[in-house]
Write a structure and sequence with these properties.
Largest sheet of chain C: 6 strands, mixed
Strand content of chain A: 15-25%
Mean pLDDT of chain A: 91
Radius of gyration of chain A: 19 Å
Largest interface: A-B, 56 and 56 residues
Number of strands of chain C: 14
Low-confidence stretches of chain C: none
CATH class of chain A: Alpha Beta
Number of helices of chain A: 9
Helix content of chain C: 10-25%
CATH superfamily of chain A: Aldolase class I
Number of domains of chain A: 1
Largest sheet of chain A: 8 strands, parallel
Strand order of the largest sheet of chain A: 3-18-17-12-11-10-9-4
CATH architecture of the largest domain in chain C: 3-Layer(aba) Sandwich
CATH architecture of chain A: Alpha-Beta Barrel
Oligomer: heterotetramer
CATH topology of the largest domain in chain C: Rossmann fold
Number of domains of chain C: 2
Shape of chain C: globular
Structural class of chain A: alpha/beta
Low-confidence stretches of chain A: 1-17, 320-327
Order of helices and strands of chain C: EHEEEEHEEHEHEHEHEEEEH
CATH superfamily of the largest domain in chain C: Nucleotide-binding domain of ferredoxin-NADP reductase (FNR) module
Distance between the termini of chain A: 61 Å
Bound molecules: flavin-adenine dinucleotide, flavin mononucleotide, FE2/S2 (inorganic) cluster
Strand order of the largest sheet of chain C: 9-8-7-10-11-14
Shape of chain A: globular
Order of helices and strands of chain A: EEEEEEEEHHEHEHEHEEEEEHEHEHH
CATH class of the largest domain in chain C: Alpha Beta
Radius of gyration of chain C: 18 Å
Strand content of chain C: 25-35%
Mean pLDDT of chain C: 94
Number of helices of chain C: 7
Amino acid sequence: MHSAVIDSRAHDRDNGTQSRPDLSVTVGDLVLGNPVMPASGCFGPELAPLIPFERLGAVVTKTVFARRRAGNPAHRLAETSHGMLNSVGIPSPGSDGFRSGLLRRYQAGGTHVIVSIGGLVASEYYEVAEDLADEDIAAFEINVSCPNLEQGGLAIGTSAERVAEVVSGIKELVAVPLFVKLTPTVSSISEIARAAQDAGAAALVVANSFSGLSINLRNRSSTLGTGAGGYTGPGIKPLALKLVHDAAAAVTIPVIGCGGISTAADVAEFMIAGATAVQIGTATFTRPTTMIEVIDDLGPLCEALNVRNISELIGTMDNRVTTGLSL
Amino acid sequence: MHSAVIDSRAHDRDNGTQSRPDLSVTVGDLVLGNPVMPASGCFGPELAPLIPFERLGAVVTKTVFARRRAGNPAHRLAETSHGMLNSVGIPSPGSDGFRSGLLRRYQAGGTHVIVSIGGLVASEYYEVAEDLADEDIAAFEINVSCPNLEQGGLAIGTSAERVAEVVSGIKELVAVPLFVKLTPTVSSISEIARAAQDAGAAALVVANSFSGLSINLRNRSSTLGTGAGGYTGPGIKPLALKLVHDAAAAVTIPVIGCGGISTAADVAEFMIAGATAVQIGTATFTRPTTMIEVIDDLGPLCEALNVRNISELIGTMDNRVTTGLSL
Amino acid sequence: MALVLEAPEVAASVRPGQFVMLTAARAGESAPALPRPMAIYSRDQGAGTVEILYGVVGAGTERLRSFNPGEQIYTVGPLGRGFEVAPDVQTVLLVGRGIGTCSLTTVAQENAERGRDTIAVTSARNSGALIGVDFYRKHGAATVHAVTDDDGTSAPAALIASLTEQHDEKPPQLILTCGSDRLTRLCQTLSERWEAPMQVSVEAHMACGLGYCHGCASGARSQGNESPLICADGPAFAWRILAETDA
Amino acid sequence: MALVLEAPEVAASVRPGQFVMLTAARAGESAPALPRPMAIYSRDQGAGTVEILYGVVGAGTERLRSFNPGEQIYTVGPLGRGFEVAPDVQTVLLVGRGIGTCSLTTVAQENAERGRDTIAVTSARNSGALIGVDFYRKHGAATVHAVTDDDGTSAPAALIASLTEQHDEKPPQLILTCGSDRLTRLCQTLSERWEAPMQVSVEAHMACGLGYCHGCASGARSQGNESPLICADGPAFAWRILAETDA
Ligand SMILES: Cc1cc2nc3c(=O)[nH]c(=O)nc-3n(C[C@H](O)[C@H](O)[C@H](O)COP(=O)(O)OP(=O)(O)OC[C@H]3O[C@@H](n4cnc5c(N)ncnc54)[C@H](O)[C@@H]3O)c2cc1C
Ligand SMILES: Cc1cc2nc3c(=O)[nH]c(=O)nc-3n(C[C@H](O)[C@H](O)[C@H](O)COP(=O)(O)OP(=O)(O)OC[C@H]3O[C@@H](n4cnc5c(N)ncnc54)[C@H](O)[C@@H]3O)c2cc1C
Ligand SMILES: Cc1cc2nc3c(=O)[nH]c(=O)nc-3n(C[C@H](O)[C@H](O)[C@H](O)COP(=O)(O)O)c2cc1C
Ligand SMILES: Cc1cc2nc3c(=O)[nH]c(=O)nc-3n(C[C@H](O)[C@H](O)[C@H](O)COP(=O)(O)O)c2cc1C
Ligand code: FES
Ligand code: FES
């Protein structure tokens, strides 16, 4: 494949300044060159011709299941005015297929590889984790938003007990650090965040896509083949930012922010709200080089915000009420 | 006050066609001339010079508390790229102040008056309901999203048991039909919807604003005086539509859709998803005459969708998977 | 940037200090979600037009800039309570900073019509940013103090010195100000010195501009009582009310 | 509507049936969130340009229309697997409907370069909507059947009659089609009659266009196996593969 990006933006940045702000952050035992990584399912080795992977803080794989899965019927994608809906349904080559195929290509990228794992029953999480435990992997990201067959299709991520059970179950089996990617549609993210921490999570990812729907008026059917889907992109940013703030306030482990991020300013907002790093999903579809552009913009933004190390931003949100003289 | 709307759109519609589609809908015992009403807090008698109230399906008051409340510190409003955040904090004149003041002005409008009521403890809901029970009111809309002091600030609306308790408590005291406006940030809206129905609700309103946050990078503080706020407007539409679909599927009482609606097509989407009527909030700020414009557009839209009565749309979403010949 | 709106009803009825809400979203668009309050810089009742000046700051004014002559813009107004000039006032001191001056200029216009005198102070970072100098002169202001940060003339000490020197002898009977906390404090000093009542026009984030959303209040004034609504109880307030509120 | 892109790398390397992803959001904008797959209607390797034709349908193409000459548009490509023309093929039948014809026109361009013959069918609702008639003629198509619903010539029965009458004697060795299920079935009949293999270019909603988002697949082919990815395994498919998938 030959790929041509006909847009000067990604290329003609000024990279020649003297003492640049330090963009590195530490997530558990992991030191990332910068806080930006892709969101699971919104990235793949196919992007290598467009993105220098080694410039990313880490890469995150699409969620891997123990067994092969075909995913959902078409349409799997629909655009909304402020983001998109998907019902891809996590097709997967299964852990064997993943190990011998995609994993090697992720590993060739020259940065940390975080492997997202999922399951339809608790035992499938254990299986896939054990299958991949000996690989050169920086962390597992446990996707607890998969529909759980033991709970009538409700995601494990909606219950603090089930999250704790799955996380500690995996923790007993493997030594790989565990990140837990939380489900956003819960009444109290703090409770689930604490449960994940107590069960041994090294970090949290907050959050996954939101449950959404759009309807095609002509045929009165969902714009997606499966009815509802995951709502992602800029429209969810205020929601994700609130969840990040609340989760970060509830735990001592690092939180990785995710949801609607598309600019360096968004990254700064998430870090100020409490995130140590961030993931970018939908914005990579809009412009495949978004993550690199964001990383390029982080240095100048740090200077504008007067921080030498980007990690100085983490969790510094000031909640004081600001009242001026004129009311 | 003199008000001039310098925009022809609201005025030069064609209203002279012969047999127009029937826009009326029935919510419990209430027959509405059309399915469009304002969302609580996004409307007031102050709009009378701009909107002929009698053209609205109903009017809904801002949430009334039993006792006078001052609301939150500034800033109470912030715009986001796809909607807005508010932390107004529901200032209220209390039920006495409301009865002698605003209520009369709503009643002068010539359409059904739905009074939104709230409380910081369960007993406050009972108090305000009793205070207003003898007034000429079409229904109470019970706002269960108020922070509840007996539950550490968590809204009653996040627990099926507490919703059932408050709704049946009010039901025992007053004869006015009860609409229950559900809280969106729950793992299963179906469960709460059923609890409200079983406790005696005549209809549900789905849903309220979503919890969101935005940060001002310059001073690293929330753009709102109180930190987080309610996220409303077009960005939440796919989320609200999904909740309406799920709630309507779970109950037999009518559901009133609310969240991100700004066009007649949006109304049709919500009705197809299961709503019997809709509420419009943020879009009234954008253009105060939005509701009238939407109502004007509903007739032609019904014709385009081939329905004689708009109520034929309700709950007709087709979930069949559409696959063409070419895959 | 300037917008001249063909709005005969507004031009005919607007009082100094009132504002309009301009919707920067075009018909069919949903963003920017909130309309923007804008002062009336000048009005021409004969032509049926009003003029608005604005600085491009964020998404709202960025969008306003995209409107072309001849396009319709959704406008509601005039709104709010403007300045109140008692019948016996002969001379009014107007003290504006930056874009805040736009809330004061129609006072000068009305003064000219009603035979009152205007003393105007317009303050800005630099001379390029000064607003209203020519407008005040054209509308018969007795004195126009154009002061800037660049040449130091806007510094409170310098400004108060020159104002007292020039006007102590025949001080104004009313002081109106808008656009700067520092100037509000300066006006307070002058108000006490000259025993002239003072009114301030204040800003707030607004959604409805009409008084029903309660978005523009600053919180509680006293136990259980909401502070005034800037859009409906103001935006012009007698200084006394403001001072009470500021708790 | 047409867009001519200065894209030397694309012009140099694109194969017939491949596509590009065009981002209709400008730099700094986040909507439309998804880029749009677009076929290359024609390419000019010398000038380093490619041409794209599109119909304005929804938000994406509405936005594309707003781009001005000289503006940059974010483009990724060429992408996907195009049509495969075996070395022994001398005559290719191209059957396109509406905007779908844009996926076939570069085949004619290549045929002309390589001395192969083109028979072209371009179908549309009415003559104003026909695409490629002049293009095909200019690029040496032996026959161009321009058929429309308006005059009834696009009806399958009428079309198959005229195609078999004219080409039964010396039938094409390859049939390529895009843009219509009805024409795909028609091509299938011809494919069987003439024993000529057939390839179809299909559309799907796409997010990445590169093969990693799995948004463009149609679901399961057989237990646990995902169907082909339209963007990476296609968009051009041998008809046999498609028929298997359609379960
Ligand atoms: C009574 C009144 C009169 C005004 N008159 C003028 C005028 O004549 N000319 C002019 O340029 N501006 C005026 N403003 C401010 C104007 O409404 C805009 O908010 C301001 O120009 C900010 O620009 P923006 O909307 O592009 O900023 P954005 O960043 O797009 O604003 C984001 C949000 O913050 C709010 N906001 C930001 N700054 C202010 C502010 N200073 N006051 C109120 N809300 C704010 C906006 O309303 C919006 O909700 C007035 C405000 C008030 C209350
Ligand atoms: C390989 C390929 C080549 C294409 N070549 C062309 C071309 O040369 N000229 C052209 O006009 N169009 C082409 N299309 C379709 C094009 O990508 C647009 O989707 C279509 O023009 C719809 O217009 P819109 O984006 O304005 O619609 P919108 O209503 O804005 O689309 C909404 C969403 O639906 C998707 N969608 C809607 N219709 C289609 C469709 N028919 N195919 C795929 N996705 C769709 C969009 O991608 C988007 O995600 C091609 C599609 C594919 C897959
Ligand atoms: C097409 C698509 C596929 C996705 N696949 C996965 C997945 O396999 N596992 C997962 O945990 N999240 C998945 N997600 C969710 C994203 O990782 C991310 O949490 C979400 O998109 C929110 O971020 P954004 O707004 O930046 O896109 C997917 C999202 C999209 C849009
Ligand atoms: C400024 C503002 C004030 C509101 N006040 C109330 C309220 O008092 N009671 C209530 O139940 N909902 C209140 N809401 C929520 C709205 O009624 C509505 O549920 C929400 O705005 C979603 O609809 P929308 O997207 O159309 O705005 C308020 C919303 C806004 C923006
Ligand atoms: S802006 Fe709505 S009450 Fe003042
Ligand atoms: S569009 Fe992403 S895999 Fe095909």
